[in-house]
Amino acid sequence: MSQITLLDRLGALDTNTVSDALDSLNLKGATFGLQPLWDCPKIVGRASTVKVGPKTEPTPTAHLITPVIDAVTSDDQILVISGGTDGISCWGDIIANASKMKRIRGTIIDGMSRDIDGSREIGYPVYGRGITMISARNRLVQIESGKPLQMRGVTVHRDDYVIADRCGTVFIPAKHIEEVLDLGEKIDRRQNLMVHAVRAGQPVSEVMHDKQFENISNMDGANMPSSAVRSSYPQNPKKTSIEDQELVALFKDLDTPAVSDALDRLGILGQALNIMPLVNYKKVIVGPAFTVRYVPANDPPGNVGNFIDDAAIGDIVVIDNGGRTDCTVWGDIMTQYAGLRGIAGSVIDGVCRDVNRAITDDYPLFTAGRWMRTGKDRVQIGSINEPIGIGKVRVQPRDVVVADANGVVIVPRDRAREVAEIAQRIEKSEASIRELIAGGLTIAVARERLGYHTLQRKERD
C-alpha cells in the first residue's frame, strides 16, 4: 500500500479514534499538552525529528532547526521538536515561512512558540505547550536531528506517523501504522453507528454498553443490532421541579463575575478553579447540578456513561473526575445524546474529547482541558447525585450552576435567593457606573458616588 494512501486513511480519522486504536493494541502514542497554538487545521504526516537543548558554548551557531528545514525534500513532513524549555521560544514566524515554502505540513513542539500571529497569517499549523515572546537566540541550540526522541513520554522515530487536531497530538510507530489504521477505521465505523443509534432514540446506556465494544477488532462495523435504530427520538420525560425553575430564573440576567462578587460578599466559596469553557461562549448557562463522581476502574470495570438517562431537561451535568488529565469522561456520543435530551451543558473536573462535535453542536462544555484518550477501562462511575468536588468547590445535587466564557460558579441551593439578590444589586450598580462614565464623570467619582468599593466586601455577622 502506498504512503499517500496511508496518509489519506489517517487523515480521515481523528486523534480520539487513533488513540482508542493504540489503546486496544497496547501501543503508546497519545500525548497530553501538545495543543494547537492557534485555530489550526488538523494535520497528518511523517515525523522529521529535531532535538534542541540549552546553549552551553559561547561560540555562534546556526539558527536552530534551519538546517532541517533546508534538507526537506518531500511534501509529507511534520517537524517534531523535543527539548524545549518553558518560557523560551524554539519557533517563530521566519522559520514558519521557510517551512511553508518547503511544503512542510506543520510543526509539533514539546516547547514554546513566539510570533504565533505570523504562523496564523500564513496558515502554518503549530502545536505545542504554549506561547512566549522570549527568543531562543543564545539560549537554545539544535542538538541533533533524524534520531529517536521523547515527546511527552512517547518515543518518536523519524518517519513515524503523526496526527494532530483540536484534542491534541498522537504519534503512530511506522511499523504499526497499517494495523492501527485497520482498527481505527473499524472503531470509527462503529462510533458512527452508535451516534446514529443515539440520534434515532436508543438510550445511551444501551448504546455505550461494554458489549458494544467487545471484540471490536473482529467486527466490520456494519452489524449494529437492529434494536439500536428507531424511527423517532423520544422526548426526555424528566422535567426539573417548579422550585428548580424558580431558582434558575433568578440568575437569568446575571453572569459569573456578578455571581462571584455576590459569593465573595457572603463569604461563600463557589468559584470553580481552573474549570474553563471549551470556547468563548456568548451566552450564560444556568441550571441545577446533576452530580456524577468517577473513580478508578475495577477489574472488571464498571460502566462509564449510563447516568445521562437520569438527567432532567435543563440540568447541568457536573462530573468529578478528580482533576484527572490522563483520560477523558466525555466525548461525542455523550455530547450528541445530552443535547437531544435537553441537558443545558456539562462541567467536568477532568478532560473531554471529540471537541469538534461539541463546538459544531454548540453544546456548552466547561473542563480542566481536552485530550483524546478514552476513560474506558480506566475510570467508572462511583456515585450519582451525591456531594462531589469541582475545582476545589463542594457541589451538592441540585445546587445552582452558572457558567459562561469567564468560567463556572456553584451557588449552594439554600443560599441561591440571597446570592441572586446581591448579584442583581451589584449588576445594577455597575450598570449605573457605566452610565455615569459615559456621561462624563471620572471612574473614581462614579465609583465613589455608588459605593463600588463596598459591593464585594464581605458582610459582617
From TrEMBL:
Keywords: Magnesium, Metal-binding. PANTHER family: 4-HYDROXY-4-METHYL-2-OXOGLUTARATE ALDOLASE 3-RELATED. Mg(2+) binds at D354. CDD domains: RraA_family. It comes from Trichoderma semiorbis. It comes from the Eukaryota. Substrate binds at G331, D332, I333, M334, R353. This is Demethylmenaquinone methyltransferase family protein. Its cofactor is Mg(2+). Gene3D superfamilies: Ribonuclease E inhibitor RraA/RraA-like. One of its GO terms (molecular function) is metal ion binding.
